[in-house]
Design goal:
With 308 residues, the chain is mainly α. The chain has 13 helices and five strands. A hairpin with a 7-residue loop joins strand 2 (265-268) and strand 3 (276-280). Helix 1 (12-38) runs antiparallel to helix 6 and helix 4 (87-107) packs antiparallel against helix 6.
């Protein structure tokens, strides 16, 4: 499969539509993904009641964290799917999976009703949400960049990260309003489920909006009929050194910078009294593949000071 290196940029109206649709969908994704963390104390009491308060909080945070474990896998799998089926289909799939995870959390009985099965279902839902969030980032960013012109690619891509913050803000506001408006008993009884129901019900809106997006992946009929090489295989075989830093043995490089005689300049500092300070900048070490481009402040090496 070959993708045009310079796909035709869409019109300004199309770009605005792409920004709105992607921002709404991505914001909903991260609303669903992060609202769980704002309800950690309540969820811990309901799904991990056999532990003390510290254990409940730790287990709730751990179940929140398993979603991050699945994000790289979701990015790889759904990213490969987006290269075959298109960005729109991949983004519709991610929002459906996120809604599924929300539904599982919203309607799962607590530990008091079904026992240990309750936290197992919660962990499963978090795995699904993490898988979805990982695929959403890559597909949505690619869609935004492919609709951009060479002059505004950074601006278009920035909306992906901005929508993440919007989703987190929405989750915090919803949970804050519920906590203020409801009593502690109501919050533990049914109030904590409301944000997940909201995320589940809004998902069809995001799916509808995304289905009306303009697809940015253009494949000719001949390319579609030809055998396609796996995107994951291409990344690993042709771009392995870029993707996998260990291939460059970065951990073996010495971290201590070397100092060039020509880069040290004397400068007296009021805070150091009469003793001069030296402004030195690091240069590339012959034994290292790293270089430090930012200048740092240090006393000039003794051997050079003596040579002066």
């Amino acid at each position: 499969m070959s993708i045009p290196s310079n796909p035709p940029a869409s019109s300004p109206a199309r770009r605005r539509q792409t920004i709105v649709a992607t921002t709404i969908g991505n914001g909903l994704e991260f609303f669903d993904f992060t609202v769980y963390g704002f309800l950690a104390l309540v969820i811990g009491k309901l799904f991990f009641p056999t532990f003390n308060s510290y254990g409940q909080l730790l287990l709730t945070v751990a179940s929140f964290g398993v979603g991050f474990i699945m994000r790289p896998l979701g990015g790889i799998v759904i990213g490969a799917y987006a290269d075959r089926a298109g960005r729109k289909k991949a983004m519709t799939l991610t929002i459906f999976l996120m809604a599924l995870g929300c539904a599982l959390i919203a309607f799962t009985p607590t530990y008091a009703s079904i026992g240990v099965a309750a936290p197992i279902v919660i962990v499963l839902a978090r795995l699904i949400q993490g898988f979805s969030a990982g695929g959403e980032v890559g597909a949505s960013t690619t869609l935004l960049v492919e609709h951009a012109t060479p002059a505004n690619r950074g601006y278009m891509a920035s909306w992906q990260f901005a929508s993440q913050g919007l989703g987190v803000l929405m989750g915090a506001v919803v949970v804050g309003v519920l906590t203020t408006a409801l009593s502690a008993e109501s919050m533990q009884s049914w109030g904590w489920r409301v944000p997940f129901v909201i995320g589940m019900l809004i998902a069809p809106v995001g799916i509808y909006i995304r289905r009306h997006l303009e697809e940015s992946l253009h494949i000719s009929p001949a390319e579609a009929a030809a055998p396609r090489e796996s995107s994951l295989k291409i990344v690993c075989t042709q771009h392995g050194k870029t993707v996998w830093p260990p291939s460059s043995r970065w951990w073996a490089a010495p971290r201590r910078p070397t100092w060039s005689r020509s880069t040290c300049r004397p400068m007296r500092c009021a805070s150091s009294g009469s003793r001069p300070r030296w402004r030195c900048s690091a240069r590339r070490s012959p034994a290292s593949s790293l270089s430090l481009s930012r200048p740092s402040w240090a006393s000039c090496p003794t051997w050079w000071a003596a040579s002066r």
